[in-house]
Amino acid sequence: MMLQALMAYAERENLGDPDFEATAIHWLLPLSLDGRLSGPPIPLYEVADAKKPQPKRLLRPFTSPNELNQGDKSHFLADSLERALLWNPKDAAKVENRRIAHGYFKKLFSEAADACPDISPHLRAVVALLDSAEELTCIHRALSSTKAKPSDNVAFQVAGRYLLEEASLKSFWRARRHKLRSATQRSQRICLATGVLAETLDTTEKIRGVPGGLAMGTNLISFDKDSFTSFGLEQAQNAAVSPEAELKFRSALNKLIANGLRISEAVYLHWTREPVATDVFALLESADEAGVHNLLTAPRTGRAPSRLQANAYYAMGLSGNGGRIVVRDWLESTVPEIEVNVRRWFEALTIINPEGAGTESAFKLGRLLFALVREKIDELPPQVPTQLLYAALRGTPLAQTALAAALRRQQIDAGKQPNIARFALIKACLLRPPNNSTIHPQPSDHAMTESLNPDSRDPAYLCGRLFAVFDRLQYLALGSVNAGVAERFYASACVTPALVMGRLFRNAQFHLAKAGGGIAENVRRDFEEISSALGEKFPATLDLESQGRFALGYYHQKAEYRRRTAERKDKDPIATVTA
Question: Which of 470, 452, 471 is nearest to 461 (CA)?
């Protein structure tokens, strides 16, 4: 089904030209008809004034990477600076290979000049430039002053004519490719993608841009060991596909990958059978506040965010393993179902902000992931990003690996400014535990709410609240200290409360005696109320989910104190007490 869905997308988008491919062209080289450089290399950008400008994606004559790998071939009309201009090969062994490919590059121009008289002078001007060591040295000098890379692609403009756009050169290339295809003999088998008897490929073309794959591209279908053969079939004949089918799903993958969501060593793709005005997948990536708000309020307004029809929805995750693509996950659903699941995802994430002044829901996936690590997402177990993304799309429970990562990071950062995205994810994990049969449990006095739940009698949640009270009392009694309650005791208190909370309970008595005024009296009431609800004994140990409830209790109580502080400041601007 996956290949058929990709092929349908290619047909919908009119993808799949066997003779041309869209590729990034970084530089344009302006020449005169006498084969000389008429100006400096021109950078080609999609949006020149963008913060990180991307090179233009233009149609270039297609040459199989399988041919390029042999080292004696090149692309036509536009190729890398290494092959086209012999610029900056990295090692001596590479120099000779690049000279052979460079010779082939010139040969294609000469061949086209003989076949296309209308553009022949312009093509021969390029050949003259490439034959001139003096001109190449001049170009190399100009490139050295830019940020060009040897792998950047360069195209040519001769006397104002952009060779990539010349109709006669396109016709020349199509005729040449057709002749090569006609001379190729292929076996006939049932195509895996279409179910039709057809000529099938021995080797498939490479997919570009898959993280972890090869720079030249990665194969979706590949067999190169004897142990992979069956019934005497070799290479791609083990999973036989026709050239037409392969072209369609390859073209679809190349376009989807170019616009995919990249996280660590994987790229996540998504598309629909029919076009939609709004794709909720984009909300997971960008968390646009207006878009998230519209999605969350749609049931109350009666306005559906998209058409109410069973439009098929597809998503997949890809990564590279050497020369092969690994399909990490595959999702097939409908647009309405995905919208419901994503709405529930943002509902589960909704939490009071650290200042206690309203809730936040719009947490993009990247923000959630970075809340779990010190610097790089690579620090996470590799399955966590995939688990979060597909839990959001499928509406399924969250794996405990995400909860464990969030709690571990919170233990390290306990004394720092609260990371709201981390607590939002902890809340979502608690609302969607892996051992729960329903995504949304029935409300109870133990439910994990958006803000402080004074009615909760869950021991772990109460311990978290009480720990925040201890932290607050210390601040009121002693002011700012180098290492407070949170820095010194949070990591142990959230796992083994009985070993720590008794000591903090005794310290709180002294802090209560030292702190004075109405603020301390309010905290005293919190202290007595929570202690009474908790009872005489603290839990000996807390499991992973209980540690999550401890963390939320702590966060909710801290946010409540900040809310009260803000209210006092509104009433008395001279007040200086802060949370």
Answer: 452
